[in-house]
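In the current project phase, we have settled on a layout for protein records. A sample record is reproduced below.
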Amino acid sequence: MPVDCSKCDSPVETDQKKVSCSTCQLIFHTHCANVSDLKYDVLNERNSNIFWFCHACKITTKSMFNQLAQVLIELAEIKSERDQQKNEIATLSNLVRVFNDRIKKIEDETEMYASNLESTHTMVRDMLAELPQVTSIEEGFASLEDRIDQISQQNSEDAKRPSDIEKRVSLMEKNYEELKSQCEVNNSVCTSTCMSAQTLTSQIIPTSCPDNVTVAEIVNELEERNKRNSSLVIHNLPESTDENDDVVHVSNLLHEVLDNPNEVLFPTDIEISRPKIHRFGQRKSHRVRSLRVHLKSAVLCDKILSISRRLMKSENYSNIVLQKDMTPMERIHLKRLVYEKKRRNHEAMQNQEEPNWTIQCGILCRRYRN
């Protein structure tokens, strides 16, 4: 059965030339996709590693690979810094080893000084034995005390030398530990960056995207996601002519969701004001516009979304739906996940299996029942 062209919606006959998008797998006439005969022949060569993308996929995936390349460049810089710190640590280790050798030498010298001191004591004993030969006992003791003072002063100066060296070694060991700790932190940052790059690749970057994206676009996407972490979108909330009523409606709605004495969060945590609420699009009489609400924190937003099922039992808000405020790229990714979930569940039903495919935390997975 012929497939319809995704641009002109007319059937693609078997004798007509057609191309398929490497990302969305949609079929196009070559003349609808502006693909020349030469390009068509190159794309259909056996063992060809050339990919073709439709206009929509080019717009969606244009910026991804250059952003990933920038992340990898930053990762390489972190690894370079880590290697440099490893070299510094190795240098410090060598210095510590040299100082340890010096301390050992000083300890040997100290032992030698102790031996000399013992010799001095022997000499003093000999001098004491010669005391009867001096003119008087007082003169002998005075001479002996002067000699002992000189020896004690010399031993005191010699004892200070190992102490100074130990202080310097202690300082070097402290610097060594600080550099080692910093290296461990950098290793953790490096691992986190790798995980972030892998997550970014698996969730929002198709594997067949062209390598022509910019760094600014991926930074803007990550900043936009961070800004929307504390926002949620409300659907089917009644809309009146007085825009100030939105504040009252949203406040009552969120208070009803969180109004539970067993919860850690209470209604006093919610602050709603006019600049933090706005409707999407222009007012139309035949439909209710969705509403975006900015809350105090991402924690509060996640808490409200996790217990939003309470609204199903509410008398006034049973038809209200609360959702996470997603970026356009997140919505595209979610649509693809929903499409893939429906396809897999349909295949499971055809194979007489349980259609248990579901979406959790932005990942398509199976749901098993006990």
About this structure: The chain is about 55% helix and 10% strand. The chain has a mean pLDDT of 76. The first helix runs from residue 37 to 43.
